[in-house]
Design brief:
Shape: globular
Structural class: alpha/beta
Distance between the termini: 5 Å
CATH class: Alpha Beta
Number of domains: 1
CATH superfamily: Acetylglutamate kinase-like
Radius of gyration: 17 Å
């Protein structure tokens, strides 16, 4: 985001997927996380409030147990999330503490927001943290939310962290949802397999043809593919939130 962009924004939600946090490996990439943290601090210093939605608990749990990834069933991933969530937060806490920023963990399910009191309590807590300069780091509670790691339409769950990020942007009155991915945006075909794939620079309306471009592939360490990012964009833009899907591996993607 350029300086002029910063001036137009008061509050943003940044969503970071497992692929960015691991760099494609099977463990958290602390150096990459530190670089993302540095950029978030720069954005905050420009006067923009930030809420962070961070995946990575399953990857952190798998790395701690040194598992090879052969088990991909839902109970195994929930177990890994239970082991990895506090380890993920410990890394974030240490990195941001070195930058002078206090962080706060927030684990949510859709059920937390379905009632008006739950919605308001969550909103008040998140905005209260932001008001006193604390960075909320939000994740879905994978241990109870099996839909986060297998999208199957359960109405009590978000379905994935992409949709969670859209919900957070909505309740926090953010102007922008910045979704950092390892592909860098929506393409006319899968850029991993098609050399002729072209980046779609702007989507004004999410149509069936746009949904068809999104496909459905995610990763075994995380959960979301481009399909869930388009679903997230639909949810966010319906609430008046602008959405940018950006390449999280590019240098200074948050601050340029």
């Amino acid at each position: 985001m350029t300086g002029s962009t910063h001036q137009r924004l008061a509050r943003i939600v940044v969503k970071i997927g497992t692929g960015i946090l691991t760099g494609g490996a099977r463990t958290l990439d602390h150096a990459r996380m530190a670089d993302v943290a540095r950029q978030i601090v720069e954005v905050r210093q420009s006067g923009v409030e930030v809420l962070l939605v961070s995946s990575g608990a399953i990857a952190a749990g798998r790395a701690h147990l040194a598992l090879d990834g052969s088990r991909r069933d839902i109970p195994a991933k929930q177990m890994l999330a239970a082991i990895g969530q506090h380890r993920l937060m410990n890394v974030w806490d240490r990195i941001f503490a070195d930058l002078g920023v206090t962080v706060a963990q927030t684990l949510l399910t859709k059920g937390d927001l379905r009632s008006r009191p739950g919605y308001l309590n969550t909103r008040n807590t998140l905005l209260g943290l932001v008001e006193v300069g604390v960075l909320p780091i939000i994740n879905e509670n994978d241990v109870v939310a099996s839909d986060e790691i297998r999208v199957d339409g359960d109405n009590s769950l978000f379905g994935d962290n992409d949709n969670l990020a859209a919900m957070v942007a909505n309740l926090a009155d953010a102007q922008l949802l910045l979704n950092l991915t390892n592909t860098g945006g929506l393409y006319t075909a899968d850029p991993r397999t098609d050399p002729d794939a072209r980046l779609v620079p702007e989507v004004l309306r999410i149509t069936r043809s746009i949904e068809a471009l999104a496909g459905g592939a995610g990763t075994d360490q995380g959960t979301g593919g481009m399909r869930t990012k388009i679903e997230s964009a639909r949810l966010a833009t319906a609430s008046g939130v602008d959405v940018v899907i950006a390449p999280g591996m590019e240098p200074d993607v948050l601050v340029r």
